[in-house]
Specification:
By secondary structure, this protein is an all-alpha fold. It has two domains: 2-61; 77-233 and 269-284, MetI-like (MetI-like fold, Orthogonal Bundle). Helices cover 70% and strands 0% of the residues. It is built from 14 helices and no strands. α2 (63-70) packs across α13 (252-272). The longest helix is centred in the first third of the chain and has 42 residues, at 2-43. The chain starts with a helix and ends with a helix. The model has no long low-confidence stretch (mean pLDDT 80).
Amino acid sequence: MAAEKHYASKRFAEKSNRILVYVILSVLSLIWIFPFFYLIFQSFALFPNPKSIFPAPDEWTFNNYINLFTNSATPFFNWWINTFLIALATAVLQTVLVLMTAYALSRLRFPGRQGLMKLILILGMFPGFLGMLVIYYILELLGINTSIYSLILVYVASSAMSYYVAKGFFDTIPKSLDEAVLIDGGSKNTVFWRVIIPLSKPIIIYTVLVSFTGPWGDFMFGKYIVNSANIQPAGYTVAVGLQGLIGQNDFYGTFCAGAVLVSIPITALFFWLQRYYVEGIAGGAVKG
């Protein structure tokens, strides 16, 4: 009898704890998602009332989206193209460099390997903006500081420092596959491109997503380049361009419309490749 009461009491406590966790998570989810709904509602409001959280249904319109593409003060299409080209080029180049670096550190054994990995990890702990001034002067010496596309070089230059997740994934691939190819007369390049890469779809997609989302939402260095080189509005990225609309009453709804359009591609891409993204993180977390 006592055992049954103890068991019932234990089950009640577990059920209560589970309900409490669900309630807390639900409340946090609502708090997290509220700004996104507010952003969407305001992007469709012709005359959004600052005192009203949600606009009236009869006020909803596409005028803010139309204004985003037709107003000369907001060349959103140019911003979007600039950002997309920068993010795409960065994703391709960064992925190749990260995977090659990770494979070399995972498979090759050479003097100073452990020291090099530790040095890269230590350097990665410092915020990137600490070197903004030096990086800009380097771009000036190269003569490419007058274009927003110089950001590609900045993003790609330090990409190899993000090797550790990909290296952890490569560590899980049996080295016997490498040895079999080498015995058959293949080279290290053959092993990497013909054997390792086809087996590494999750980590490739993870690296592409991380490499693409970074430039897509970056503001700090883009703004620094724009201000220092006096780049015209048509040469901005979406983050820099939309930031200029904040605080302008006439463009508040336009800013919200731009924010919605910017979030759609990256959100769709993430949900489409979500399974591989999770597999890449899980695979890279097995070994360091």
